[in-house]
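Retro notes (design track)

What went well: tokenization of the new backbones is finally stable.
What didn't: we kept losing track of which sequence belonged to which structure.
Fix going forward: every design gets posted as structure first, then sequence, in one message. First example under the new rule, 461 residues:
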């Protein structure tokens, strides 16, 4: 077999590409993965999930320490710079990268450096003209921030979610345009640092896909921390000045702050991928259409991760990559459909959910009931002092089947997986009964499930 011929070629080393490459290698296939950036791990490791979550953790720990009565009593008022806070992120990125490098080496998957471009449906070429062939392909090229025409992203006061990671001087104020997950997460982080934040939302509510009660809680807590939120606004233009940047809105409002962060939308990385040579046309956001098996319109070419659009999460991208590889390898009995994806939103407070919302269940006329547990009533939350939060379980009032779990507060993104595990059980093991009849460690945050289940069950008559 030619050195340049593989069973599968994967384009991109983010979670989508890694999931696909590792799964295909485990199935005994000869796989190669292509990466154009000089480090592996994708946007996830270098510009997205990992740096933002590591920065969030640094800010949280720094602020918790600085605000502790003990430190205050010593008269200490240090202001850590963003560069200092980012330093820990740097070491995590390095660890993540070397761990992933190890995965490819151990599984004998060569990482070929360069921009891969389709020449025909079975051949890709890299910058130096070398061509590689395969029976199957997985396109996992990820996405980047969408940049509208007319905004000068080279101006030192105007940032997007990639360039904000290079910010060194701590601004006194920031306007964030776009209140999706990334916008809300950065709004929380900057506010936690004591920076004045304007959050401009193009829609009527924050994160409309969430349960209404959680949306209300998020809006309340962001405002309570001092974030100024503007809904239903559209940007007209952004001007950079020496002393700051001005966001002009179509409504006539003008917001001047030290910097502006553009966080409104992302585009798939489909340029120079040679899609025209294989008969694929992405939509205007650079997304490639796939079917349930993640096949594009060319059946031996799959796509996974941000490049296929919603939900654009690292968690889903990895599973989609694996699902595509399993299908391509003909593992029909183990093929997965990547559905029921939980949300994990690292705002302050943290938010997580799985399953249906009250709005969806009401629209579908499902007879459901709801059980709540407020964190402030849990012993564990009282001990740790992290009392902001709530867990709610939505369940069918006759079968008691769990239909949705929605949570905000400390560790919400971890806690949600307990509910997910029970929801995933086949009937009749996917009901409220598990939480009513199981002994939980005490004191724990998991106890919220028992409290919410009993609270909901008491409403059933
Ligand atoms: C600020 C921020 C915070 C986030 N936080 C979270 C979070 O908390 N949880 C979560 O689940 N998700 C989060 N995400 C989303 C997550 O980062 C993405 O969903 C995930 O990275 C998508 O993975 P991917 O494999 O599709 O693409 P990527 O991770 O972007 O990887 C794509 C790779 O393909 C390479 N590539 C592109 N084109 C080519 C080519 N032609 N040839 C060779 N290589 C190519 C790129 O260089 C890149 O390395 C966040 C995103 C951002 C921006």
């Amino acid at each position: 077999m030619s050195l340049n011929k593989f069973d599968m070629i994967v384009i991109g080393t983010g979670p989508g590409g890694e999931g696909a490459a590792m799964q295909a290698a485990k199935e005994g296939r000869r796989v190669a993965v292509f990466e154009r950036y000089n480090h592996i791990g994708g946007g996830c490791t270098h510009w997205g999930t990992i740096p933002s979550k590591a920065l969030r953790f640094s800010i949280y720990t720094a602020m918790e320490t600085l605000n502790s009565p003990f430190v205050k009593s010593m008269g200490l008022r240090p202001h850590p710079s963003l560069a200092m806070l980012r330093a820990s992120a740097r070491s995590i990125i390095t660890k993540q990268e070397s761990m992933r490098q190890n995965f490819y080496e151990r599984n004998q998957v060569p990482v070929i450096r360069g921009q891969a471009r389709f020449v025909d449906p079975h051949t890709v070429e890299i910058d130096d003209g070398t061509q590689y062939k395969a029976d199957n392909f997985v396109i996992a090229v990820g996405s980047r921030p969408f940049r509208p025409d007319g905004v000068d992203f080279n101006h030192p006061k105007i940032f997007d979610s990639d360039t904000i990671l290079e910010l060194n001087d701590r601004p006194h104020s920031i306007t964030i345009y776009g209140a999706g997950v990334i916008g809300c997460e950065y709004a929380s982080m900057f506010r936690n640092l004591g920076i004045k934040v304007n959050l401009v939302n193009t829609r009527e509510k924050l994160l409309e896909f969430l349960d209404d009660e959680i949306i209300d809680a998020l809006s309340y807590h962001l405002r309570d921390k001092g974030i100024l939120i503007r809904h239903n606004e559209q940007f007209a233009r952004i001007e950079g000045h020496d002393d700051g940047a001005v966001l002009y809105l179509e409504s006539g409002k003008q917001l001047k702050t030290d910097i502006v962060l553009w966080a409104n939308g992302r585009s798939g990385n489909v340029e120079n991928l040679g899609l025209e040579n294989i008969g694929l046309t992405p939509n205007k956001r650079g997304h490639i259409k796939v079917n349930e098996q993640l096949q594009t319109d060319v059946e031996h070419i799959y796509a996974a991760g941000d490049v296929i659009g919603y939900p654009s999460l690292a968690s889903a991208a990895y599973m989609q990559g694996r699902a595509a590889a399993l299908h391509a390898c003909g593992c029909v009995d183990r093929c997965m459909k990547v559905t029921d994806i939980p949300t994990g939103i690292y705002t302050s407070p943290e938010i997580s959910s799985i399953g249906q919302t009250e709005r969806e269940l009401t629209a579908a006329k499902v007879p459901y009931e709801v059980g709540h547990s407020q964190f402030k009533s849990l012993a564990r939350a009282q001990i740790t002092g992290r009392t902001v939060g709530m867990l709610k379980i939505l369940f069918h009032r006759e079968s008691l089947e769990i239909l949705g779990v929605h949570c905000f507060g400390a560790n919400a993104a971890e806690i949600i997986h307990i509910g997910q595990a029970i929801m995933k059980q086949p009937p009749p093991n996917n009901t409220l009964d598990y939480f009513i009849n199981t002994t939980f460690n005490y004191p724990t945050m998991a106890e919220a499930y028992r409290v919410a289940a009993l609270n909901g069950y008491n409403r059933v008559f």
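Added context from the reviewer: The pocket of flavin-adenine dinucleotide is lined by residues 11-17, 34-37, 42-44, 48-49, 52-53, 115-116, 140-142, 161, 182, 269, 273, 305-307, 312-315, 317, 344, 346 (CB under 6 Å).
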